[in-house]
Amino acid sequence: MNDAIPPGTLPLSARAPGKCIVFGEHAVVHGAPEVVFAVDLHTQVLVRPAAAMSLNGDREATDRNPYFRAAVERCWPDGSPLEVRAVSRIPRAAGLGSSAAFVAALAAALRSARGGVGRAELAQLSYEIERTAQGVGSAGDTTAAVGGGYLVVNGGDGPAIWTVNGPEQRWEARRIADPGWVWVVCFSGIPRSTASAVRAVTARLERPDGPRLLDEFKGVAAAGLRAIEQEDRRSVAELLSRNQELLRTVGVSHPRLEALLEAAAPAAEGAKLTGAGAGGSILVLPQPGKEAELVRRLARAGGLAYVVRAAPEGVALVEDRASS
Ligand code: PMV
């Protein structure tokens, strides 16, 4: 699954998964481990030559959409016009990695048209595009979109599948065996900005108790990694709650997220917010067999819930009948 993206000829289609962070969001920006899985909700792009550059019919997209602009600048330097269509099952601004999936899929299609690209290079490139567009953040989301499956960034032992270099730090990515679990993710309907949540948490961690809090984040993520490797659901459930406590303490929970966590509790083993928080989504480990009940409970509480599992594969070219 670490195969390269092969060379291709336009029109080309590629698709990439979103992601769910199980442990370590925010702290990963400050060097802590993050456990993440690529989720089986995808964004697919179709790219073909055209008379004018557009994204889903919008000819101003290179001005309006910083992800699109950064991807085109990095992967399509001659700027010859392209029609790009993107469709996605990942809700946007929901903490589920829609922008990373879009960036990885578009970069894969464009670099395929330019002779192909290795997966490690694509992980670096997708991170740089997202970082340019967003201004802050870690390589976790783009690593999941490119790598697929369960991954740990900044943690674990054994050989790294790749290292992504950022301006202030580097992120090593390692694979974790998929425990085969079904999860429920639920979007609160409240969109938020990753960049402002990251900046707020960064400021919070600069206060006197910041180093102690960061150590606690690190401890929870390292224990969470071990628990997932041992397929120990009970420990994972407990650690999800501890991670949620820490995220509350650094100020990125939200009354709507707390209401969803409460609604989920009777059918859940454990749960926490996932992604940048301050809105966005929660991730729930359901009590086995109670997935449908959980979805009903969350819908009654006003959330948009999905029953998900890990997508084993990262970004890939796909046949798209609309392109032929
Ligand atoms: O909410 P999302 O999908 O943008 O995820 C953000 C995760 C953070 O750890 C808060 C930031 C990052 O880039 O790792």
Could you describe the 3D structure shown?
- This protein has 10 helices and 12 strands.
- It is an alpha+beta fold and 324 residues long.
- The chain has helices at 61-64, 66-75, 98-113, 119-134, 140-147, 194-205, 210-229, 233-249, 255-264, 291-300; strands at 12-23, 34-49, 54-55, 82-88, 150-153, 162-165, 170-176, 183-187, 268-274, 281-286, 304-308, 316-318.
- The longest helix is centred in the last third of the chain and has 20 residues, at 210-229.
- The strands form 2 sheets. Strands 1, 2, 3, 4, 5, 6, 7 and 12 form an 8-stranded mixed sheet that branches. Strands 9-10-8-11 form a 4-stranded antiparallel sheet.
- The mean pLDDT is 95.
- The chain is globular and about 55 Å long.
- It folds into 2 domains: 4-178, Ribosomal Protein S5, domain 2; 183-308, Alpha-Beta Plaits, CATH 3.30.70.
- Residues 25-26, 28-29, 95, 97, 137-138, 140-141, 194, 198, 275-276, 280 line the site of (3R)-3-hydroxy-3-methyl-5-(phosphonooxy)pentanoic acid.
Question: How is the secondary structure organized here?
Answer:
Layout lengths: L11 E12 L10 E16 L4 E2 L5 H4 L1 H10 L6 E7 L9 H16 L5 H16 L5 H8 L2 E4 L8 E4 L4 E7 L6 E5 L6 H12 L4 H20 L3 H17 L5 H10 L3 E7 L6 E6 L4 H10 L3 E5 L7 E3 L6
Parallel strand pairs: 3-4
Antiparallel strand pairs: 1-2, 1-12, 2-4, 2-5, 5-7, 6-7, 8-10, 8-11, 9-10
Helix pairs in contact: 2-3, 2-4, 3-4, 3-5, 4-5, 7-8
The structure holds (3R)-3-hydroxy-3-methyl-5-(phosphonooxy)pentanoic acid.
The site of (3R)-3-hydroxy-3-methyl-5-(phosphonooxy)pentanoic acid has 15 residues, from helix 5 and helix 6.
